[in-house]
Design brief:
Strand content: 15-25%
CATH architecture of one domain: 3-Layer(aba) Sandwich
Number of helices: 11
CATH superfamily of one domain: P-loop containing nucleotide triphosphate hydrolases
Number of strands: 10
CATH class of one domain: Alpha Beta
Structural class: alpha/beta
Bound molecules: adenosine-5'-triphosphate, magnesium ion
CATH topology of one domain: Rossmann fold
Order of helices and strands: HEEEHEEHEHHHHEHEHEEHH
Distance between the termini: 49 Å
Largest sheet: 6 strands, mixed
Strand order of the largest sheet: 6-7-8-3-9-10
Shape: globular
Radius of gyration: 18 Å
Length: 259
């Protein structure tokens, strides 16, 4: 058995000279980065800098997008996510994602949270309902939905729909959780509770969070990656990236003196 120290030394995910493009438009070029196991990593950068594209690549959501191409590799536990030995379904079970816009499935609130658990056959019957309840409690949605579990999720508010999708993503107990601006539709109280929740997920789950909120990155992230003009400009411990960045562009971006 590897020791805890050895485990955290092995990156959960590793991007190796990764270049991503749509048609002739290059989005990211030559990205090499280790995502530390059991830590929260923030991905920051201006609009259009490729944060979402990078996250979606990590669980192969872009593979079928027209015009999308990649070179280089992404390793999960040392193995390419595009290896023929890796089944897409198994990859998505290990690497969960919460999207920038809430995307509940057209089924009841309960079935939304249970969907992944059922699809991956992780539990059955009453067990599934118990997992769903636990996850809804965890994200702070239980009180709002406990009396309407059979209702459509589309009557929930935008923020509640996002929390529901988070509960759904957590229900399959992923090893890596990709969060694309998870709190942009939430009020300050819900935001604070999600930030607290994120800290309770580590070190069991490795979390990558895209955020435009610099204060949020500083609060939740152990490590930060800054993307700009197709490049990974800087990465390191969050405090270092924010307080003593090595690059001028990073200093300008994190202090809000950008553009
Ligand atoms: N499906 C697609 N087809 C073509 N171009 C795309 C597609 N998805 C993203 N892009 C382009 O890739 C670039 C990066 O987009 P991406 O959504 O990754 O940026 P982002 O950093 O997440 O921005 P934001 O902060 O606004 O969410 C943009 O120029 C965008 O127009
Ligand atoms: Mg985005």
């Amino acid at each position: 058995m590897p020791s805890a120290a050895e485990l955290s030394a092995t990156p959960a995910l590793r991007a190796v000279d990764l270049t991503l493009s749509f048609g002739s438009r290059a989005v990211l070029s030559g990205i090499t980065a280790d995502i530390q196991n059991g830590a929260v990593t923030a991905v920051i950068g201006p609009t259009g800098s490729g944060k979402t594209t990078l996250l979606r690549t990590f669980n192969r959501m872009n593979d079928k997008v027209t015009g999308y191409r990649h070179t280089g590799d992404v390793l999960l536990d040392g193995r390419s996510i595009w290896s023929p030995a890796v089944e897409l379904m198994a990859l998505r079970r290990r690497v969960g994602m919460l999207f920038q816009r809430a995307n509940p499935f057209p089924m009841s609130i309960m079935d939304n949270v249970a969907a992944g658990v059922r699809a991956h056959k992780l539990a059955k019957g009453g067990e599934i309902r118990e997992i769903a309840r636990e996850r809804l409690v965890e994200v702070g949605l239980w009180d709002a939905v406990s009396s309407r579990l059979k209702d459509s999720p589309f009557r929930l508010s935008g923020g509640q729909q996002q929390l529901l999708c988070l509960a759904r993503a957590l229900a399959i107990s992923p090893e890596v959780l990709l969060l694309d601006e998870p709190t942009s539709a939430l009020d300050p109280m819900a935001t604070e509770s999600i930030e607290k929740l994120i800290r309770t997920l580590v070190p069991k789950i490795t979390v990558i969070i895209v955020t435009h909120n610099m204060a949020q990155a500083r609060r939740v992230a152990d490590r930060t990656i800054f993307l700009h003009q197709q490049q990974l400009v800087e990465r390191g411990p969050t405090q270092q990236v924010f307080e003593s960045p090595a690059r001028e562009e990073t200093a300008r971006y994190v202090s809000g003196r950008f553009g």
